Amino acid sequence: RGLPIGFFSIGGNGWGHTPVKRVLDFIRCATDGFVSVRLQSDFEYLTSCGIKCRYYTDVVLSAIYEIDQVCPSERNVLALSIHKRLGRIFFPVIWALSFFSGRKIVFVKTHREGSPYNYEFLPLRQSKRIFSHVINDPISSLTQMHDWKFVVSPKLHLGVAALSCGAVFYGNEGKNKVK
């Protein structure tokens, strides 16, 4: 509605830092008195620089509190969000792991159906132990994440959401911020 919106990251992804003074000067000139931040440390820093701001917790970390879900007594699902090239290479090994260990394996696609991004591996056939999940709805996905014991993905937000549900996360092939 005519409000200016600016997104800033001071650092991140291991590629150095945005010049802090330039960002602070821009915020002072462009915000017209309103800044929101997702980290308590950013709130404290900007406040110490004389910038009025509001603190909202990280929505990914706190998303689990939006659903009423009891943690299952036994987590038995390995969740994989991997590139098609890795899936094609490792699927026979993954299938054998599932068959011999009895562990359920879910392949996760983080982009909605119909998205132009179509690089994540999903199995052609599914079974009781090997199946797929496409994240179309955050509530149903968070509910399903309660069954996940271990997550392998290059996706930071998938990993953080799974961590908030109590799963172990391993960031593979991702950018520095995922590792």
Please describe what this structure looks like:
- This protein has 179 residues and is an alpha/beta fold.
- Helix content is 33%, strand content 16%.
- The protein is built from six helices and seven strands.
- The strands form two sheets. A five-stranded parallel β-sheet has the order 5-4-3-6-7, with helices on both faces.
- Strand 6, helix 6 (156-164) and strand 7 (168-171) form a beta-alpha-beta unit.
- The two termini are 38 Å apart.
- Overall mean pLDDT score? 76
Structural class: alpha/beta
Helicity, in percent? 25-40%
Identify low-pLDDT runs: 12-17
Largest sheet, order of strands side by side?
5-4-3-6-7
Return the string of H and E elements.
HEHEHEHEEHEHE
Determine the strand fraction and express it as a percent band. Answer: 15-25%
Structural shape: elongated
Counted by DSSP, the helix tally is: 6
Major sheet attributes: 5 strands, parallel
Number of strands: 7
Q: How widely separated are the two ends?
A: 38 Å
Q: What is the CA-atom radius of gyration, in angstroms?
A: 20 Å
